[in-house]
Amino acid sequence: MNDIPDEEIKVEALTDDESEIWERLADYGLHLNHDFPYQVDVLFPVFQGEETRGDLRRKTELLTRLEPTLENLLLPNERVYYVARGVQQSALELIFVGALWASIINQTVFILTSLRIVMLRCNSRGTPAGVGWVVFYSEIRNIRSRLLGTLDIQLSDGKRLIFGGFSKVDREAMPEILAERRQAYQEHGFAPECDSSRQNLCCTCFAVVPDRKYECENCGQLFWRPTELAGRSMLFPAWGDFLMKHYALAIFECFAGLISWILALFAIWLGEIGTGFGIILMAHGIDAFATLIIAFKGHHPRPARRRRAKNDSFDDDDF
Ligand SMILES: [Zn+2]
Fold first, then answer.
1. Distance from the CA of 86 to the center of ligand 1, in angstroms?
2. Would you give the end-to-end CA distance of the chain in angstroms?
């Protein structure tokens, strides 16, 4: 991957704003690691006044939770400009998974760095959950803040991502950072080539893994094919979501599956054998289709031991 231009290395003394932000964090008892390459004047665009205390605390806690991931993710000289949490919205998932479950499994933390935007699926506390993507600023055609509080991200390859759940400060800050970073790209002649605007990231080494490749060439991490997950959900509803670590959704699917089996057995007991098998086929089919929709959106890791080098023999005893 292209390295960040040398001009981005921050060696100068802290500005007045940066000093004041660090002082405020200390005053409020909020700990942020000074050794991390945080661009605090961008990370905390609003920091004056007692009313900002809650926002400072939430962002500091999120950053602290992300630090183990940032240690592996950040490239030399790459700086953290902004972090925010949102929920990706998808009409298909609303229909087949339901609004509540879609909002739980689509929690996403955005990490805007000097080089790129990294999106990581996360749990409700903001801890990364193993699926991620990278988008270079040059691959974003536009970010618009909509009236209903959503953020509409239009990518250069024509895809469109819609996120809700961002605060007003986030919705104002992110388009500004995009504009500033795109200008920095142009000034440095930085134009990374991408197969698609939003590229899958390996959850282990954070290298890019191309679409339809299910093994990381860098570290050997293996990923589930969407059809493998959907096939398992067809056999047993919830299996695919258990493998994708959507445990709450998977337990719900188990109950829904159980109800469909009881109804099917009841129909068979009444002599309606075709209806009974039809109920099972429909229930399992809907679950498999929902799994397929979810699985296609990112690379979900397999719990397999990794192949460290091309000459090493593959060890699958962790299956
Ligand atoms: Zn990897």
1. 25
2. 32
